[in-house]
Amino acid sequence: MQSSGYITLTRQAGLGREMDAVANNIANISTTGFRRESVIFSEYVAALGPEASSVSMAAARGRQTHLMQGELTGTGGAFDFAIEGEGFFRIETPQGDRLTRAGSFSPNEAGELATTRGHRLLDIGGAPVFVPPQARDISLAPDGTLAADGQPIALLGLFEPADGAGMQREGGTMFRVDGDIVPVAEPTIKQGFLEGSNVDPVAEIARMIEVQRAYELGQSFLDREDERIRSAIDTLGR
What pTM was estimated for this model as a whole? Predict the structure, then answer.
């Protein structure tokens, strides 16, 4: 196969990864706290020699997570918390602490607030948040102060990666931070609300059509290139 064929194959592979990302976004339109993801395309240029032109290959291995605010929906749930502005909740998992914007919590058997997967919510000091089982009224102030029957019991913290620290998606709505995390200076948390996905369904469907057409165009080129090579071989073999 000539260079043009290899170049097209690298582009096709990248478009396939982009289609996977778009499909995953569409599948999570209704997922609480989900963040849209896209593929980052880059170019790799290599010289073939002093007498030949350089070859440009496509690479699409990078991922970008879009952190725009999702729509807040009122639920009235005492343990449904939504972040307004910057920051993430800090939760404890068997693999270490993770960050998330999915704020649907409920008390576990020990009375500690946890996600639907059982990961405990941590306060600003990194300790689990315990809610007295006999408490009748649970209230949350915008600064994260959680109170039971009018008495403060915990201070929820919002966190973000420190300068230079990157986030890696894990488990759909969870993120691992490769570095330090720091508290958000002025957190704003709303009780009785959940933040929805920030995926725009119309934009994602339009992007899916665009990627599909680009992939079909590349496949058409590969088919014509294969036909040209086969024709040349048949001609030379006579």
Answer: 0.79
pLDDT at 1: 47
d(CA 137, CA 123): 19
Terminus-to-terminus CA distance in the chain, angstroms? 21
Same domain for 184 and 81: yes
| 67 pLDDT above the threshold of 70 | yes
Query: Rounded to whole angstroms, how far apart are CA atoms 33 and 29?
Result: 10
Q: Is the domain of 191 the same as that of 77?
A: yes
Mean pLDDT of 122-145: 94
Query: 232 CB contacts (<8 Å, ≥6 apart)?
Result: none
- Considering its fold, how many domains does the chain have in total? 2
